[in-house]
Amino acid sequence: MVSLIDAGLGDFLIPVFIFLLVYAIIYAILKKIKILGDSVNVNAMVAFVLAALFAITPGAMEFITIIAPWFVVLVLIAFSILLVFMFGGVGSEKIIKIFEDSTVYWTIIMLSIIIIIGGLTAVYGPFLVGGTPEGSGAGSSIQRTIFNAKVLTTVIILIIFAFAVRLLSFESQMK
């Protein structure tokens, strides 16, 4: 039996869903920060235009297609952990206090940055690397060195360690 996604309907619906997701996120941000005022029409029009520009930008839809499932998994894991604690009798005041801790939101920010960098690498990595650089000049040698998988992994791990040291030293100063 052929499902709707196998019949090619998924190829049509995924861009529509991504457009709606980008529109909803931009509209919500505009309503929350009120940078353009309280006008619903202005916020809706700006969100629509930005979502349309996002939809025609090469690689942008593919970027959202890659990172959106990871953020959904991140949110589902967070909700599952919260549910376990709430079933255990932890109150909402205590959960709010936990999320006010800098370690929790810095961890979420670091995971988000890793997801975004992974998405950008998956979409724009071949463009940045440009294939295997040919030649023996300084430019090709620098390109091979910077975009080497081991070098990029080391840089990301060093950034994570720097955040960890900062958080640990900040927590020890608070006590």
Describe the structure.
By secondary structure, this protein is an all-alpha fold. It has two domains: 1-56; 63-175, no CATH class. 83% of the residues lie in helices and 0% in strands. It has helices at 5-33, 40-56, 60-87, 92-99, 102-129, 138-146, 149-174. The model has no long low-confidence stretch (mean pLDDT 82).
Distance between the first and last residues' Cα: 63 Å
Q: Give the low-confidence spans.
A: none
Strand content: under 5%
Sheet of most strands:
none
Which bin fits the share of residues in helices?
A: over 70%
Radius of gyration: 21 Å
What structural class results from the helix and strand content?
A: mainly alpha
Number of domains: 2
How many beta-strand segments? 0
Q: What's the pLDDT, averaged over the residues?
A: 82
Number of helices: 7
SSE run: HHHHHHH
Overall geometry: extended
